[in-house]
Fold:
Amino acid sequence: MFIDIHVHVTPTKTTTRPNGSTYTTPEELIATLDREGIQKAVLLPMPIPEGNHRCVSSEDVIEIAAQHPDRFIPFCNVDPRQISNSPDTNFMPHLEYYKSAGCKGVGEMTANLAFDDPLVENLFKQVEAVGLPLLFHIGPQFGGCYGLVDSFGLPKLEGAMRKFPKLVFIGHSQPFWSHISADVTNETWGGYPKGKVIPGRVVELMRKYPTLYGDMSAGSGFNAVSRDPEFGYQFMEEFQDRLLFGTDICYPNQDTPLPTYLRKAGDEGRISHQAFEKISWQNANTLLGLGL
Structure:
């Protein structure tokens, strides 16, 4: 079984993305999941302006998941600037409502604000209180990108984990996964560095903070575990309890190399059967309380 921690969907076809594609409809997404042998997937809403080509609300995702309960798991999403654009905004009624409606987490957090911005910390505090995990995208700068902004070396992410020790953070994006190797630079941390991995900051943070999980989706997650296969297998074994399979499917017929890579690693004994099962579905099942 595969449970995908990271996919996107649109209720209806509207505007195109820069590459000319449109976000997947539920039917197109199910066809792609079937092609890849993925049984269930987490739908991530896109209500935050940054990185958003088509606004998809938490309510949209809840409704789509309710129409396909055997395939989709809803997350909710809240912009830290929402309602009153204040560090005192009360998000609890909204988070509690979304949780009661079946949402299993918050994300993808793409607001282009610093990890330690008072608006962001206000939201972190309340997501921690309601007991949901938070999936984030890191942006390397303010403007010209999307995602919570950190500095090279991820000091603000570590600060957030210290300040909110019960909040589960699910890491994603190029600036996060490029830090898997100690040879990452200011020039490469926003991309897909290649070559042998010298265990770096992500490894350090995952060893230090049990609340940090890794979202293996997209080119960034796949690159992290495949650029140096021997390291990648060891990394998956060491963190088999906190790595989450994902694809980041956004558009129809998208290439998704991770399922094949993981299956081959398991079939050839590169990773243990136990690690394969945990990464492919059991960790998501446990973290999200799916009861499968």
